[in-house]
Design goal:
This protein has a domain at 35-83. It contains three helices and no strands. The protein has helices at 2-7, 15-48, 52-82. 2% of the residues are buried.
Length: 83
């Protein structure tokens, strides 16, 4: 563990940086929840109409959107950590 610390010393984040990271996390969770609510409703509608292929496509869209939002959040957090 000490060797690892010598190779890549960890930075201490300021309280402002911690707050910014927490805000990014909060906003990202809210966006993901919003997407889930919207797309899950569409999935249920598609299944109710017997369009199971459409439901699968919407589920895949949900997965892609969630991954994209999480990736964007991680990039923003990393910028803050590097500053």
């Amino acid at each position: 563990m000490e060797r690892l610390e010598k190779q890549t010393p960890s930075k201490t984040l300021t309280s402002a940086q911690v707050a910014e990271i927490a805000e990014i996390t909060s906003v990202t969770r809210a966006k993901i929840a919003e997407k889930e609510l919207f797309l899950r409703e569409q999935i249920q509608t598609a299944k109710g109409a017997g369009d199971f292929e459409g439901a699968v496509q919407i589920e895949q869209q949900l997965l892609r959107e969630t991954a994209r939002l999480q990736e964007e959040a991680e990039l923003k957090k990393e910028k803050i950590r590097q500053s």
